[in-house]
User: Fold these one by one.
Assistant:
Number 1:
Amino acid sequence: MKIKALRILPPIAIGRLGSASEPLVNYEIEEDPQHPLDFHRVKGATTFVVDPGTGEIVKAFTPKTISFKEVEADGTERIRPVAPFLEVWALVDRDQLVPLTVDLLRKNGLKPADVKWQVTVANRKVSRRTANKDDEVSAKTPVFSTHEARRLEGHCKNFISDKASIYFGRVQFIKPTEEHPEIRLRFTPGPGDIYGPNLTDDEARSIYGPKPTGDVAQDKKQKKAKPPVWIPPRERAIYDWRKGWLGFENFKPIKPKRARKPSDLTEVGEPEVKGVELERLQARETLPPSLYSLVPPGPCWLNDNVAVSRGYFDDTCDGIVEVRLKLKSGKKLEAAARISSGPPAVVPDTVFLRTLRDDLEQVIYGPWVPPGEKEEATRDRALNIIRRAFDAVRFLNVAVMNGNPVNGRKPLDFDTMPAEEAFDVQRMMRPVVPERTADTLMIMNLHQQVYAALQGGAAPWFAHVLRLPTEVGDFTDHGRRKMPAMMCGADGGYLALTYRQINAILRCSGLPLQPKHPKKQDKRAGLIARNRFEQITHVAAGNPVNSRLEMSVGNCTPGLEMDFRAVWRRLFEGIVLREYDNLVTEMDPSARAAGLPNLAGHRLLRVNGENMFTQMIGPSPANTRTRTTVLGFTGNPDGVAPLEWSNALARVLHESVGKTVTCYFTKTPVWSEQALWESEASHLKVSLKVRPFFEDDTAMISRVLAKPGELTQGLCSPWQNDYRECSCYYWASARPDFVNVQPDEAGLSVGDNWMQKERTGDYVPDDYVDSRLLNYDDLFLEWEKFLRFQIGGVDQDKSPPAPPSASLK
Amino acid sequence: MRKIKLDHLRFLSKRRRGKVKDAADGELDIRPLPDKPDEMTWRDYLIMLLHIGAELEHGLMVQYLYAAYSLDDQTGPAARRRKVAEWRNALLIVAKEEMGHLLTVQNLLCLIGGPVCFDRSHFPADTPYLPFPFRLEPFSTRSLALYVYAEAPESWQRLLRTRKKELRKQFADDLKMVDQLVGDEVRDGHAHTVGQLYERIRDIISDPDKIPDADFRADTYAHQASWDDWGRGYAPPPARPGETAPPEVPVAERSNILIMQMATRTEAIAALNEIGGQGEVPHLKLDRDDEPSHFDRFLRVLDRFQSEGRKWNVVHNVPVNPTTIAPEEKPEGWVSIEDKTSLLWATLFNYRYRALLTYLTHTFRLARLVDTQEPNARGAVMHKIFGEMYNIKAISGILVRRPLKDGPTKGKPACAAPPFELPYTIELPSDEPDCWRRHQDILSASLDICKALLREAGPHFAGLTDAEKKYLRTLQQLDEKAFAWMDLIVTGLLRNGGHTT
């Protein structure tokens, strides 16, 4: 059996932060066939215990219960990190993929020591914002083939020394044994620490004022009495505070690389750069904006758009694992996979409505239902979507998220999608559905009833209420009530499913697919796609479900484990797009060879006849015929809303990889404003080549599309901010809303806000400043204590023992 | 009962009071609707007519659903299945829109101060107001012809004029076919279209001498059913930028549920015009409205079925008027569901149908008891109604794939079908806790049936498909949760005095 090529499976693995000494055991989730509407059961699966010294798997067992947290003797709570394995598979005769084992190596005249690894990870969150490459934190191991754990120490030019580093975790080449002869590597992410600037006490005092003494009366007298700003401890104070990240303000950039003084951070001033340079720097803003730790704490829009950085870094990262093998023939084989680290999946028994797996499935199969897909398979997918929909509703306080007043308080004060919409389009806030019908258990029950009917064989009848990706800017009641409701998508509008998900339901309903299906399909592409799909969904031995793509938030704003929006930025040769809209941020080195004009600052409006934007519309009583009006406002008079790449480019990607497509750009740069398509003559026509999404015929996302660190660079920095302020609404994933829910005697749902410090059964609406809720510093300092796992919809850190699987007759 | 033979197009002619001149056939006689009994007040008479309207809408809806569920769009070549699905969808669209009409009629009843009506048994099946006797009948040329007839406008001439010149002949031919098909089926006393009834209602409500302003209860507006609550997205999409009208949606996918609240006479007349325009009286609809009427939809389906589908064998072999009543006790003209497992499913269906009607009645009552602006139990009941609609859909789909009778049969086996049998009452008890207990009684019965079907050692289990088992288990769990939820509500009500929610 000759080794022809290598693969690392899975091609993407997700690690999750935690400081517990032992990683999370392996577990699966399964539906209880007797109680199909219950939460999934959490069930232990074969778990490997690795000796950290030797790198050998010394024990394999199946846990009866799953503990997501450890509580130490002193009461310190530590979350167990999720540490996925990456297996090496070999392509052998007849194009079969088989595990690369000691035996297979031996048959090819090789031994485990011939397997060479190298891991490169980075955290670019800060440099993404400051536009300063010297703020990139990256770690690269030497090439290794031994079995000791390798620390991933992230260094950065702007750290105080060459030795200062962020600990991103470790990787370990697992030593094959007789019982476990497979070649694999394990990635254990960092503990979830926050790093920051190296301020002395004097410097801190000059910037933030004197430290509070604890004496309230005396503190009140202090001239600069402010909430204390937490400064990371000395061993994690590694950033040279003069380099720009501390005190960074997106809307008031200083000259790049100029050293700062304390007065820069305390005095109000004008931006030091002007004109196009200012626009270019401000275009680095993320969506949502200012996703970093701020002084004062709180979202920038509550503080006159003042967003002064505290200069924090987190220890998340993403990057590439490479494996190499030189055959006796001299041929060199290589394979790669991606890893990333993110927050814990605090709802470990529930799958989000749109996951990374859904987005990648669409990349592999295209937006349509493959012609060869069996009806039962399509139907199962449709059922699975409905299952996930009612699981999402469970964790969503529907009344509050609908925009209902809460005990007479104004709904605009709370963090909800209708409130977001009101701010975005500068219109009065309206609830999504009639207030009287908005209740969590009511709506969940309705979804479950749909699920029941589909189980019984009924064809889906509700396809007309699914939001098409081109309808995300429809803010009429007709549009806002479409499904999924009350959640946010990658474009900042209401969430839409992937075309592939929508089309599964349309196909079962007998309705035409969206967009129109091409008549001819490339059969060969299907064969490769099937192979890719198997690779991308491969379950490596020992990997719990929360290390996989199906437990990772999909293409939403911005994501938790990865910002999948970032993967589209370089899809067209020659240009680099902003991850969340159609702005060309810079030209790629390949542009020169292709003879492209400088398109930086231009906006991509149309690709192969398809608009990359929609226009926002809202209800209008003025025209009874159209009933709508364009929601334009100062700065965006045409109400232009760019569409998320994952859906907008799905068709282009499926049909035109390696081919040239016709693109239209604005004729001139428009860095800070949206632009509307007018006519071919009004815009700049450029032909661009579509890059492959995957490398060769593997399922590895191309390294050309995203470098290490780029798949997480648009996420919050530090990630804890995501829990406090990010208006993302990833219910039922790592950021639930409504927990411990039960009906009261009026038949309505009561429960707690997941972010509520004290569980009272009285939901505290999320308004950023309520002291009953977790605040930024609670999360920065004690996230492992405060982020409570939800099992069965209630606070639990440990799963109950699952009964043995029973397949019902 | 004497059957009458109608002349070509005769049944479509108009004569409510005496004789009218018809350009095609000269003078034709059509029996008018019965007059108001002298001693009855106009308000009382209007309420009676609205009750008849509600029964009519309800009855038509059920018959359309039955015909739709009898179509098999799951087998055969893909192209054929698509066609069948289109016909099925057309029937379902009309049924959904009839539900909107039914709710609008309830709103009219609220406005006039009459009791709501979700029953359909208060009037004998041969009431002179119905277009044809109530009959659950599978999809066929004849049943379609009956539906065309029921939804036909009073004046074929006026309708004909709305057609493009080149289509007039086709249209006339279609109507001739309807005439021939229906002619022998229409019984004496049923020669009325739905439109005639609504014309009568409209005439009365428009006349201040008959219904004075004081009879209109504007204060019921908030208690009436609203599109916001019930429409579920079934409306034309909004216009996109640059469009001067809402975008075109293929007819087969279009559905426009009209549920109008009203506070005034003017609004009541507008509502009647709207539902008349959508269903039965096309000349009432607004000029700008290009939505096909129910009459148009049925005529189109009939036309296509006749030309393409008659020989396709795409209709489940379901009976006319299925019943759960044993063969020795069933009324004449009804067919007993005899297969034991199918009978249980049919009984389950009846309970879900009953649950739906009981919840519907309850929502109108709860509307007066709860704060209509806050989330409340009425909202939950409303969602349950939709849940029951889904159950009816799912169980119907299961029934038409199950045998009608025990044992082997020759030829295409006869299938069971949804019986749509009414319970002894859908009236609600006087006290609120008892209303919830009524719901619990229905759930208990349903749970017992699920249990009987799912009993592994029982006689039914082995004959269930995986999908049926999954459905039953899911339904069971839903019902158990609903039961517990209602327990909580009853406890709360009793603690608070028992009358309000």
Note: Chain A touches chain B through 62 residues (CB under 8 Å).
Number 2:
Amino acid sequence: MKDPQQRPWQVFALVLGFAFLYTPIVWIIYFSFSGDLPGGNASHISLHWYRALLENAELGEAAYRSLVLALISSPIAAVLGTFAGIGLARLERFPGRSIMIALLAIPIFAPEILLGFAFLILFASAQSLTGWPLGKGMLTLVIAHATLGAPIVASVVFARVSGRDRSLEDAARDLGARPLRVLATVTVPLAAPGILSGWLLAMTLSFDDVVTSSFLAGPENTTLPMAIFSGLRVGLDPQINAVGTLMVVGVAVIVGISFVTARIGAWTSGRRRTPPSGEC
Amino acid sequence: VHMSVRGFRMVCDDPLYVIAFWHGLANATLTAVGCILIGFPIAFAIARSPVRRRNLYVLLAILPFWTSFLLRAYAWMGLIRDSGPINALLLSVGLVHKPIAILYTPTAVLLVMIYSYLPFFVLPMYAVLEKLPADLLAAASDLGARPAYVFRTITLPLSMPGIVSGAILVFVPAVGEYVIPELVGNSGTMMIGGILWDEFFQNRDWPLAAAIALVTFGLLMVPALLLRRRLAQLGTTSL
């Protein structure tokens, strides 16, 4: 396909759009290295706010808790979501399939405050009926984050699996592989890039979640976003700039890894992600 | 268990809740319109850029979504403060003589909401625009149609499903948004999400909060799900 002709206004829209998207992020990084308060001139470069951050035990603990939470809840979400995604894509005559596919979208685009509140009511009634779970804490947070992440993984996996025809799976079956073996050696490996990107999405969402967590965390389970949020309600705190810069770096590393693995995945499956440019 | 409809009656009768609900709806509508006005040109420009660069541009458009949303809201708080860089720029250019108050106003809420929700619109919009049949557009211009006419009669009607599904993806979560109005708005920008939060955390009125949640869910999610289903049946939207 020939590349469409690019008009000046399109370049203009791209430049302006990306400037809008990236100005706040650049600003955070810039001011995290400033020695002064964020209102004054950034007259000299300093690591002052990073040093202050290192000594802030409260934020450090919250960051550690958020990391643990994301690392525990996102694999659960990845496993559940993979099962759901593959099942919905491959069991085409399963009763209620189309309703379930539609319901997958609810946790993705419902207002977060409704979900957080719904989880709380659920846990509270479960506790008053059965005595479990015992109050709010890491357990309720993990359950909620895994539940919110699973449909995201499921929809990414669903899109990837249902877009492929079944010929490879049929071939494996014809050659005598049992269903579980077909799943483990053909379907899941083919869905792997989708599982990976869904997993990473679930991890970032868990690490970033403030509303749902506020409903479900006990007083001693403050997560990093909750700590940042309560700090921001009081006013501006330059330490947050340093936190932000570290998070931007972390995200850049994760995205870099996923970009590279996607490329490797594309190579190993023998397909190029983009057609060679300007040839056909 | 004792049953009562007190919560529902309060939600319907007390103007506080009705007004907050309308605030949420109005703000979400403006956010969706803003996302369309800003996001459509971006998605269109990405879809019309050279094939080998499209993936990079899409990645650039969703990258901000991967960084903490709280931090981006915080960054805007710094940018639009009275002594922030935007006011400094306006002052030095001479457009204003004293700093204009943006932070803690409805304008700030709208700005940060549009910014935060923009990737949710750009992605589905791009997915639709990328599939736009190029030969149809080429045929129209070969036959002498001016670019504006091609846009109005071909591009826009064909991209309508993308606009609608992207707008739903922005509008629905935006109605219940709590964090952004709390951070950059004022007490006058109280929306249904904030009311729900306060009833729960401050007044500890669980039944009332549950009634608010259920009414919001019914008025919001059911139509949105039906509309998405309709779009999916037309074969125009992926999940």
Note: DSSP finds eleven helices and no strands in chain B.
